[in-house]
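Deadline looming. Please check this record:
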Amino acid sequence: MSEINYIKHLNNAFLKIEQDNRLNPSHVSLYMALFKLWNSNRFVEVFYIFRDEVMQCSKIGSKTTYHRCIRDLNNWNYISYLPSHNPFKGSQIRLTNFGTSTGQVVDSHRTNIGTSSGQALVSNININKHIINKNKGAQPQNENEVIAFFKKEKSTKKEAQMFFNHYEGIDWKISGKATITNWKATARKWILKANELKPPKAHDHNQDNLKVSKDKNYSEPL
């Protein structure tokens, strides 16, 4: 693949976006989401995307807007878009390279830490650290793992499912901002909170709560 100078690429892309009156905020948001995914894929020439993931990243809530914007970006040569029309197979994306091959370079086959100019490069080491950290209990592998953990903590399957569905729906973030770094710690807090909210046990129906004698004489004044 060709080398990508992502700083020059973004500078030139922003300049082009600024001068292009055809673009609206949805176009820009979608382009930046695609750039983020391109970055995550280490700037390979062609990568795959899934509509729901890109819509969430770009904060585009309408499928109609999404498809219109991605077609526009393709027609206006910001990207090359090859839809798969298969929900189980991602569509192919290629971003037009607006940068050059000199300066700060990011290449999927390079492991350089820096250059003679003092500019730091994104490396395999940093990416591997990110993968390792992500796997250290940040998120459960699946719902069954959550259910097993809740049972171990003397909680219920229903609470486990509620916990999993809640945080899965908000991308495992707290208050929609900070990403959870230890889901088990968050689950323990959930269980404690759930126990606090449990209603008190109902009294035995056979218990005489008012301690009233069954043979009380109700003709006597109180």
User: Anything to note?
Assistant: Residues 25-40 form the longest helix (16 residues). DSSP finds eight helices and five strands in the chain. The chain has a mean pLDDT of 78.
